[in-house]
Amino acid sequence: MRPSHTFHVAARVPEKLEPLRELAYNLRWCWDHDTIELFRRIDPELWEESGHNPVRMLALVSQDQLNSCADDEGFMGHLNRVHSGLKEYTTSAERSKDAVETALPPLVAYFSAEFGITECLPLYAGGMGVLSGDYLKSSSDIGLRVVGMGILYRQGYLNQYLNPDGWQQEEYSDTDFYNAPVRLMRRDGHPVTVDIPHPAPPARAQIWCAQVGRVPLYLLDMNLPGNSEPARKVSERLYAQGGEMRMQQEILLGIGGVRALSALGINPVVYHMNEGHSAFLSLERVRTMMKEHALSFEEARVATIAGNVFTTHTPVPAGSDRFGTEIVEKYLGQYIQELGITTKDLMAMGKENAGDLNEHSPLCTTALAFRMAAYSFGVSRLHGGISRRIWKDVWPGVPEEEVPIAAVRNGVHIPSWVSNEMAQLFNRYLGPHWASRPSRPESWRRIDGIPDQELWETHERRRLRLITFVRRCLREQLKRHGRLAGEVDAADSTLDPNVLTVVFARRFAAYKRPYLLFQDVERLKRILNNPDRPAQIIFAGKAHPADQQAKELMKDIIHRMRDEQLRQRMIFLENYDMNAARYLIQGADVWLNTPRRPLEASGTSGVKAAANGVLHLSTLDGWWAEGYEPGIGWAIGRGEQYGDSTYQDAVEAQALYDILEREVIPLFYNRGGDGLPRQWIAMMKSSIRKICPAFSSARMVTEYEQEFYVPAAQRASVLHENEFERARRLAQWKDRVRLAWPQVAIKKVETTSLEGLQVESVFRVRVLVHLAGLTRDEASVVLYSGKLNSQTDIFNLRTVPLTPEKSGEKDEEWFAGEVNCDSSGRHGFSVGILPRHPDLSNPYEMNLILWG
User: What's CA 724's distance to the chain center, in Å?
Assistant: First the structure.
């Protein structure tokens, strides 16, 4: 039965302890060890029971305990120190030296379907969510003016448990938001709500806020009494299955998110779409601008694109959402009318191939985001190249190397992932800048000054904590399965805290190849059970509920682990979440990753491990393709890509066994008279020194600001001046160019002699262009040159702009330029013409390119 009235009862905290509330509701505590220790000090067992949730903990703690803390001078001194630290952090107006120096940094709205900030807010599924959380934390640290926008899922992502046969089962538990570190946004005592496009009856969403240091994260919730039952379920689960539910969630995030910011009086200059789930925000920005400034659809589109930024994460086309015409019309039919366009127009904006004439092709939100953003980028150098290949048809005719998708390698928020013990070691020997300026190489240069024995003892304590945690989890798992007491007690001897420990922990998916270690089971047994140099492996990871192949892989691996010669050396840890991840990345010796190149977009769990001195062993994919160098970890292969996946698995499995047997294990057990693996420790130090600054999310956010946010803010400002005068002119110019373009032609291409050319030779190219009424300043004539491969395609493309030379007949212009022959071999060139305008976000924005 639903109640007729609701009310909330808060814990009665003594006045002296009121700062505890402020600390609990600012998520900075989740990366500040001193604050965590303060809450643990109240009641260590209750801290664990609350799920590391200080708000819930304060609701559960007894009045006697609170009164005792208020009378404890030591506790009060700790509380005042931590509270003063938070005040200083949140009120400081000074920007970090890692931030870009600008007169007025842009206010950025960062939209993401998931945010992994801490385990007591289960709003994340995996790596992309953790990246979003680390982005907010680093933005707060460096003082970037950011607001986050997401969805407050009542049940979040799945909780995983394994049945006795090893099959993944999913369960979902409701989150009590009134006992979580989020607050409902109110105005005049009432929740702030916004309308959400939805089939009748109308639907609304209310807005919650999680404060992440200096950055507010706003979260939308449709579980409201006034909404219909179907509407209330929209914010129930992260990545809910079914096309219609995904459409509704993306409408909530994109359209609802823009409306929520407006309702709160927040006016961002730049909107960052983290993956295509939030692509509909671009439409709402257009609709709002049309309504408020009397602009046409095209004028508003021009004005809003300038301030939109897009990150693509998926390395495969199947990772994007697609919606058919029927679903689009059902949920956006009335909305499309407000935009003044047709359903056909909107579907065309989301086509993956701009030349696709099929009216029934679905709307792909990734393609829509690409077309509605001034700047787009992937999450590693390799992934940027893959993205250009996958999405090149969004810009038909554009050479793949020129497709306007850049790359910024992902990073992690180092202070969030370094263990308390390691942080104390860093503080003692590196000083405070490792945490406040993690992207500066000089912050890590003193790493060699840490005594080997102290570093190794710290690492060994973390390995012991990992093994203890695994044993505790295994006991609970065996109890749930109804195992005999002897079997449950045997969990206490599972794994050995003194043995080389390898961890494979990530989302379970076939392309990540969790099975690679089992290609030669007999050899694996010999490696793990070497009497003098044993090893042990911990697996962890969740499969998507609909990924039956991944579930079968998981089950097969668990069955293999039950072999008598493997069961004491291998274990599968249930319910991989942020809490489990901390134990794993802080306590492992080796972090193993085996994706099939090039299907790992980034995969930065290994960076979190490296910050704790854990060495990385992986194929050269994702971040490791950029991060690897000899002496900081190990690479499986040299970046080869195979046509035969079975053969690839066999080759790379043998390479993995070889590395373990010949390099990893001997190095770990090669001890001096003092019992220290000196060479291993040296590699740990090199890994920390090289990886931490290069893959810090502070560096990542700074690059975002410098390369995308500031230019986007500047372009948007220019287009919005004088009642959008330049935006209106640009839209009119685009209409004129599109009308003239069918008559534009390259009439003639002339070159000086191409015979007998040698390295350092120069030849001249002249091109006669019919401009069909356009001026020479409105056309960009470009020569693309480079070496030819065996299929006579140009690769290693080089662009040579041609400049106007002289006028020909009516509407004809000559353009000319020189090509330098800087290498020998077979070369070729092609000439293209594109529209040119100073306010275009990139030369290919209009999807107009003509080849000669």
Answer: 34
pLDDT band at 8 (very low <50, low <70, confident <90, very high): low
DSSP sequence for 471-498:
HHHHHHHHHHTT--HHHHHHGGGSS-TT
pLDDT for 102 beyond 80: no
The position carrying tokens 């998520």 is 27
| SS3 track for 836-849 | CCCCCCCCCCCCCC
- Please give the pLDDT value at position 641: 87
Query: Residue 41, exposed/middle/buried by CB under 10 A (0-12, 13-18, 19+)?
Result: middle
Q: Which residues pair with 779 in a beta bridge?
A: 835
Query: Is residue 844 within 8 Å of 404, Cβ to Cβ?
Result: yes
Measured CA to CA, the distance from residue 330 to residue 351 in angstroms comes to 19
3-class DSSP state of 545: coil
Structural Rg of the chain based on CA atoms: 29
The candidate with the shortest Cα–Cα distance to 35, out of 47, 49, 51, is 47
Whether pLDDT at 108 is above 70: yes
Q: What is the pLDDT of residue 229?
A: 94
For 383-425, the pLDDT digits (tens) are 999 999 999 999 999 999 999 999 999 999 999 999 999 999 9
The pairs formed by 467-473 with CB atoms below 8 angstroms and a separation of 24 or more are 467/495, 467/496, 467/497, 467/501, 467/587, 468/497, 469/580, 469/583, 469/587, 470/494, 470/495, 470/538, 470/571, 470/573, 470/583, 471/495, 473/573, 473/574, 473/580
When mean pLDDT is compared across 127-136, 279-288, 821-830, the lowest value belongs to 821-830
Residues in the chain: 852
| Alpha-carbon torsion, ordered 554, 555, 559, 561, to 10 deg | 20
With 0-12 / 13-18 / 19 or more C-beta atoms within 10 angstroms meaning exposed / middle / buried, residue 541 is buried
CATH dotted code for 441-693: 3.40.50.2000
The SS3 assignment for 141 reads helix
- Answer positive or negative: Cα dihedral of 159, 162, 168, 171: negative
Do 744-851 and 108-407 have the same topology in CATH? no
Predicted pLDDT at 738: 96
- In this structure, what token pair is assigned to residue 395? 């810009």
CB atoms under 10 Å from CB of 738, counted, come to: 13
* Whether the predicted pLDDT of 96 surpasses 60: no
450: amino acid identity, one letter: I
Q: What pLDDT does 245 receive?
A: 95
Give the tokens for residue 665: 């294990």
On whether the CB atoms of residues 152 and 235 are closer than 8 A, the answer is yes
H-only helix segments in 124-272: 127-142, 229-232, 243-251, 257-263
Dihedral sign from CA coordinates of 39, 44, 46, 51 = positive
Give the residue extent of every domain in the chain. Answer: 15-91, 108-407, 441-693, 744-851
Mean pLDDT of the chain, nearest integer:
93
pLDDT in tens, 622-667: 999 999 999 999 999 999 988 899 999 999 999 999 999 999 999 9
The confidence score (pLDDT) of residue 490 equals 83
**Other C-beta atoms lying within 10 Å of the C-beta of residue 359:** 10
Say what percent of the chain tops pLDDT 90. 84
Q: H/E element holding 685?
A: helix 678-694
**Residue 690 Rama label (left phi>0; alpha psi -120 to 50; beta):** alpha
CB-based contact 439:699 (threshold 8 Å) = yes
- Its CATH class, for the domain covering 108-407, is alpha beta
pLDDT (average), residues 715-731: 95
pLDDT value at 478 more than 90: no
Of the options 2.60.40, 3.30.300, 3.90.550, 3.40.50, the CATH number for the domain spanning 744-851: 2.60.40
Averaged over 672-677, what is the pLDDT?
94
